[in-house]
Design goal:
The protein is of the alpha/beta class and 372 residues long. The protein contains twelve helices and twelve strands. The strands form two sheets. A seven-stranded mixed β-sheet has the order 2-8-7-6-5-3-4, with helices on both faces. Helix 2 runs antiparallel to helix 9. The longest helix has 24 residues. The N and C termini lie far apart (55 Å).
């Protein structure tokens, strides 16, 4: 019997993003829903980005700049590197796909932490390569274990700092040792820094500072989180020019639309909004973690714009109770942490509403403490 679909699809579980905010509000009959499940920017995008999108909308019938030169130039100035070291993507998700298209083949192995952002394993599997999972230890990426799993078949390693969904970081010292341990002929090394802008730990690894030391390093960044542009889908990768050249061979022309490009440029220009978003997240992350601890929940120390919270066997029940109160959080089972909730850091009003609803739903929680 003819088989129309690739066998690799049998090993892939589609990413479950859930219904849209509008659809969920209609389904629940709620006039308002606080979504703290998707790690979105609670302040929204910069007003300058919104204005740029409005101004550019009249040119939506024209193809965008295929190379995104103006944005790559601006990013080059920001990161003190040339535009030839930049590639834009329809979100960092597309960039993961480009890396897989350009590099991964059947028989290859790609080492990834587990649990981690689901698309890492998905792009590896779809390419015909084999994902090799390296378990987290106490919510931390075990770089020594990842290095031990490198074989002659290893084509790449993928790490993220801060980690999604744990929120923990890889330190600069640990990452430098890791790069050194990979030797003089290293595999590709992908460092996803989607949440790095929210870290206030001076020891948080900086992939861009190591590009000169590691010729196969690819650093992923996104405008979805700190810039609040998740809805227009734009991210970028920074690597050596010869690496970017290979990724450009598989990049579709016009992969980043006009509205996304001008919005990202405007967001870069509005550093005040950038700084205010970072300040709010750091302040409210500290507040929310403290209050959740006071309620008896164990909170994983986070350097991202979300918290992973151990709620024992009550994750599903608490999620449903919060949903009835118009608050959406992520059940940890879906991201590899049963018994946990992943909660986006919101504004003070959002966080206070969440805490009130949790206190009502779980008046006598187990005694907990911040996880170490």
């Amino acid at each position: 019997m003819r088989r129309p679909w690739r066998s690799a699809l049998d090993q892939v579980t589609p990413y479950e993003a859930g219904p849209s905010l509008e659809a969920l509000q209609a389904e629940l009959g709620l006039s308002e829903l606080v979504r703290l499940s998707a790690n979105e920017n609670s302040l929204g995008p910069s007003p300058r980005a919104v204005a740029a999108i409005r101004a550019e909308a009249a040119r939506a019938h024209l193809y965008p700049d295929s190379d995104g030169r103006a944005l790559r130039d601006a990013l080059g100035r920001l990161h003190a590197t040339g535009p030839e070291s930049m590639i834009l993507g329809n979100g960092a998700d597309e960039l993961l796909g480009l890396i897989a298209w350009a590099a991964f083949e059947p028989g290859d192995e790609v080492v990834i932490p587990h649990p981690a952002f689901e698309p890492y394993a998905t792009v590896v599997t779809l390419s015909g390569a084999t994902p090799v999972q390296s378990p987290l230890v106490d919510y931390q990426t075990d770089l020594a274990d990842m290095a031990r799993r490198v074989t002659p078949r290893t084509k790449a390693l993928i790490v993220c700092s801060p980690h999604n969904p744990a929120g923990t970081i890889i330190t600069n010292a640990a990452f430098r040792r890791f790069v050194t341990a990979l030797g003089d002929d290293p595999p590709l090394l992908v460092l996803d820094e989607a949440y790095r802008d929210f870290s206030d730990d001076p020891e948080c690894a900086d992939g861009l500072a190591l590009l000169s030391q590691c010729p196969t390093l690819i650093v992923l960044r996104t405008f979805s989180k700190i810039a609040g542009l998740a809805g227009v889908r734009i991210g970028y990768a920074v690597a050596r020019a010869e690496v970017i050249a290979m990724l450009n061979r598989v990049r579709a022309p016009y992969n980043v639309n006009r509205l996304a490009q001008v919005a990202a440029l405007a967001a870069l220009d509005d550093r005040e909004h950038w700084v205010e978003t970072r300040r709010l997240v750091i302040q409210e992350r500290r507040f929310l973690a403290g209050e959740l601890g006071r309620l008896g929940f164990a909170v994983v120390p986070s350097q991202a714009n979300f918290l992973l919270v151990d709620v024992g066997g009550r994750a599903a029940a608490l999620r449903e109770a919060l949903l009835k109160d118009g608050i959406l959080v992520r059940d940890g089972t879906a991201v590899g942490f049963p018994g946990h909730l992943r909660i986006t850091v919101g504004t003070r009003a959002m966080n206070a509403r969440l805490l009130q609803a949790l206190e009502h739903a779980a008046p006598s929680p187990h005694r907990g403490e911040e996880k170490r």
